[in-house]
Amino acid sequence: MKFLTPQALFHLLSTDKLRSTGNEQKGRVRSTSRAIGVGRRRLWQKSTSSDWIISLKSKIGALDDERSLKMSIFKVPNKLRKVDEEAYSPRLVSIGPFHSSRTNKHDHLLAMDEQKRWYMLYLLNRTLNPEETLVQFVEAISELKPKVQRRYAENIKFKPQVLSEIMLDDGCFILELFLRSKLKDFGEEDPIFHNAWMVPTLRHDLALLENQIPFFILEKLFNIVVRQFPEHLSCSITDLALSFFYPDLNLNQEAIRMKCSQVGICSHLLDLLHSFYIPTFPETDPKAKETRKFNKCATELVAAGIEFVKGKEDHFLDINFNKATGVITIPSFHIDERTKSLIRNFIALEQSIGSGTQQHITSYAILLESLIRSSSDIALLWKENIITNDLSEFEDVLTFFKSISREVVPMDFNFGALCEDVCSNKCWNNVEKERKKRKAFYLKMKNFINLQIQYQSASIYDE
User: Fold this and answer.
1) CA-CA to 74 of 20 to 30 Å: which in 228, 260, 322, 346?
2) Which pLDDT score is estimated for 396?
């Protein structure tokens, strides 16, 4: 088996063979661009000769409809980012163009750039022919360049070759990271797996909406590696990713195994993780979506006769209400700094995609925000093991839930039927009727007392 040294890798990346691959791609892109330009000129040649009209039509003709249909990697909206800046920003490694060290000189991210190249070298040396593998990597990414650019919602200001380098560096880094995590074959010299804080931090960074590369890049590179791998790899790139992220998934092993067979096409790693939280149980009644939250908090519902019980941990979105017993069943949800960031980025993803996508995590956040309005509500749910946390105080958990749906615009609400059932429950209605009776009696007594005071005042005045 051949091995590449760092010097050989540098030399190979500089050879004419790799450059020619890029030049051939540039030639094909230019030819395609010329053909598109000719088609657009023919489309508008019969129109008026007005310079303004021609200019306007040229701009419209330049719009890429395919881009708008396939965008999947977004910048977090400013209104969400300002609520919790740290939840959306990488702490250790930049992935993709948005936070690349080529434009954003963040000192805390620069250190990982060298580690990316080392991981690329290690990944190539896993294969039977590292040099041939590298050539295949470059050819594959060069072919995918136009497809990559269409995945980003923001205009990418990098030159195509620089963007391809980012895809290669980051794709190889992620693949080698996943393989080391899965195969446990990292040596003592590995600075990532021998620092207790680095792997959890990388899980955080790789699950940020702005810190993504298209999933098809990882799939393409993985398929090339598998063909050159000296031993048979029985896992897929999806298996590798889920094995790496498992500690943060808040799902049990059985639930993950069941979902693995149901995962479809994913846009990126965050989208893959998000797909694991899409429930398999039936959608709620669309007629009930006018109700957007509970009208009372947890302590008020308990005072009204509603009971909270911890549900099975198969799926934390599987919240149910038994009308006969008045019991709301909610699976346990663990809150720490990592899950806080993950939930916020799921919501940002759902908000960015917009209509046509079920907003399950957004709905969950809105539901819990309406349920948790004070530390007493947190204490009640904590006592039932529905909410567990690694945060220091209940107040920290309360602050999180109060802000989690701030600036969020829900397109759908998946718990509308459940909220309506709780609000119309018999035991709740009895309490409401009793409350209204007491209120009516209080108003009647207040009016009676006021009349007595007025009568006595008038009598004194007459005397």
Assistant:
1) 260
2) 87
Q: What range defines the domain where residue 381 resides?
A: 286-424
Average pLDDT on 151-167 reads 91
The amino acid at residue 147 is K
Shared domain check, 47 and 66: yes
Specify whether 139 is located in the same domain as 249: yes
Q: Would you state the structure tokens that stand for residue 375, as one six-digit string?
A: 């530390």
Answer whether residue 384 shows pLDDT above 80.
Answer: yes
Residue pLDDT, tens place only, 117-150: 999 999 999 999 999 999 999 999 999 998 999 9
* Tally of structural domains, the chain: 2
Would you say residue 319 lies in a domain? Answer: yes
CA distances from 328 to 247, 251, 336, 363, 373 (A): 27, 20, 24, 17, 17
389's enclosing H/E stretch is strand 387-389
The answer to whether the Cα torsion of 422, 428, 433, 436 is positive or negative is: negative
**Contact criterion met (CB below 8 Å) for 235 and 175:** no
pTM of the predicted protein model = 0.80
Mean pLDDT comparison of 83-92, 180-189, 414-423, highest-scoring range:
83-92
CA distances in angstroms from 440 to 436, 437, 447, listed in the order given: 6, 5, 11
